[in-house]
Amino acid sequence: MTTRERTYARANQQRAAQYTELWIVGPPEDIAAMVQVASASGRLVYVSAPQQMGGDDTRHRRYLRLRTT
Q: What top-level branch of life does the organism fall under (predicted)?
């Protein structure tokens, strides 16, 4: 591996380590509280629109990207 390749790989790992991506599942009011806390902390980067789980399940899910640093 060349020095350039090592530098590029290290930079990609550092960029990936800056964020945590996760799906949260639960009742809409619980998800709204979690999103509000994440937003107030300044760590919230992106949040998707709520999606119903489907069937008889009344829970929703949302995708969040949070800043780790």
A: Bacteria
The domain of 48 spans 19-67
| Predicted structure pTM score | 0.67
Give domain status of residue 14, yes or no.
Answer: no
Whether 8 is covered by a domain: the verdict is no
Q: Is the pLDDT of residue 61 over 70?
A: yes
**How many domains would you assign to the chain?**
1
DSSP letter for each residue of 6-44: HHHHHHHHHHHHTEEEEEEEE-HHHHHHHHHHHHHHT-E
Does any domain span residue 2?
no
37 burial (CB, 10 Å; 0-12 / 13-18 / 19+) is exposed
Per-residue pLDDT of 16-51, as tens digits, reads 668 889 999 999 999 999 899 989 998 999 999 999
Could you tell me if residue 9 is inside a domain? no
